[in-house]
Amino acid sequence: MRFSHEQFRELAEKHGLAVTHQRQVVYEAVIASDGHYSPEDIYAAVRRRVPSISLATVYNNLRLFIECGLLREVTPHASTLRVDGNLKPHHHLVCSRCKSVQDIEGEFIDFKRLSRHLPDGFDLTQPLVEVFGLCRRCAAKK
Hints:
Elements: H1 5-14, H2 21-31, E1 36-37, H3 39-47, H4 55-68, E2 72-74, E3 82-84, E4 91-95, E5 101-104, H5 111-115, E6 130-133, H6 136-140
Parallel strand pairs: 4-6
Antiparallel strand pairs: 1-3, 2-3, 4-5
Helix pairs in contact: 2-3, 2-4, 3-4
């Protein structure tokens, strides 16, 4: 998906962000395709359009987008940052071997019921289930 400059300007301003060409290109690189990418993956894609961009700029913008709610962080406990442009409610299948992440749709958790079992004062802000196992490719290598 490619945003016009005006569309990105409106989105950025809505979230209190300064509008820059680099930010627009970084954001578009994440939402352009389905997937869960590392900053290095995004950097490789962005450098085709903005050769002078630094990896630090990509990291900083991704973190900013996550803080503003424009992107989601995938598996925040993993060893590397991964981002997700899909903001619709969904869950993830995570391969324990290759660390690939796939979206899984469905309402298979009763979050209202779960919230009744949480410790006092715990605010369930972003219910997300990660199911670990082996992807098809890794399972075939057994």
